[in-house]
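Field reference: sequence -> structure
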Amino acid sequence: MYSSQLSRNSSFNRNDSIFKTTIILKDQFKAYSVLLHSITINEHTISGYSDHFDSLMIFPLQYQNIKAVNSKLDDLPYKQHHCINCHKKNIN
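Structure field:
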């Protein structure tokens, strides 16, 4: 498993589907599948880990990619406060 936001939380379930869920991000005329849990959004870029290419992919921040991420997050059984609670423990 790869995470661009490394967490010190050792109590996660590696078999949880959240760590296997992918999302399609587009860069001009091509589309790439990246792991949703590895997504990092910055001011001008969005990045995520691609199993297929075994690397971190970086894309320009475009409306279509933000829309895809929001849509995928809305479909998950997790709510934002669940993610924050898990990651909040490890920010310090």
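Note: Residues 17-88 form one domain.
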